[in-house]
Amino acid sequence: MGKKIKISAELEELVWEELKDEDQELILEAKSISNDAYAPYSNFQVGAAAKLNSGRILKSSNQENVSFPVGVCAERLLLGYAGANYPEDPVKKLAIVAKRKGEEEWASVSPCGLCRQTISETEMRFNQAITLLILTPQGHILKIPGIQALLPFKFEDLNG
Q1: Does 137 sit behind a cis peptide bond, omega within 30 degrees of 0 on the bond before it?
Q2: pLDDT in tens, 34-50
Q3: Distance between CA 104 and CA 89 in Å, rounded?
Q4: What's the whole-model pTM score?
């Protein structure tokens, strides 16, 4: 008989007033850059903002391409830029927001599988978890202590 393995994760759901000022700033930066998303095919505008250990804030939006799947998600574009331009400065926090073009309300969003693995690789590269802040349509913020909560069976877990 096989052995059962239970995998669980804990997330925090916070209201705006419960966020630290630096977390509010990251969400606001992600909201702002989402307006610059190039999403003519999906009309799904994603914004991401990262705070590096040094305090530097970087931001990005998704960039689509008619030759699907050549487009790049906001999270992967941002983490790639951070790694290429600040290779000694780990990402500490990553805020993610999304909305549909022409709508005022924020949409549900969660990093796709490629982005989850990229976040995992970035955590592994620097041996440091990245706190994720995800805005919900209700205006709450999901605070996730690291990618393990969203990707419990990562490629690198297979090596152990």
Answers
A1: no
A2: 999 999 999 999 999 99
A3: 35
A4: 0.93
Instruction: Write down the residue that tokens 């994720």 correspond to.
Output: 132
What totals of helices (H) and strands (E) does the chain contain, helices first? 3, 6
Joined together, the tokens standing for residue 25 give 């700033």
And the tokens for 34? 């989402």
Of the two residues 12 and 155, the one the predictor is more confident about is 12
Active site residues: 75
pLDDT > 90: percent of the chain = 86
H, E, C per residue of 108-146:
CCCCCHHHHHHHHHHHHHHCCCCEEEEECCCCCEEEECC
Measured between alpha carbons, how far is 93 from 38 in angstroms, rounded to an integer?
24
Helices 113-126, 74-85: axis angle to 10 degrees equals 20
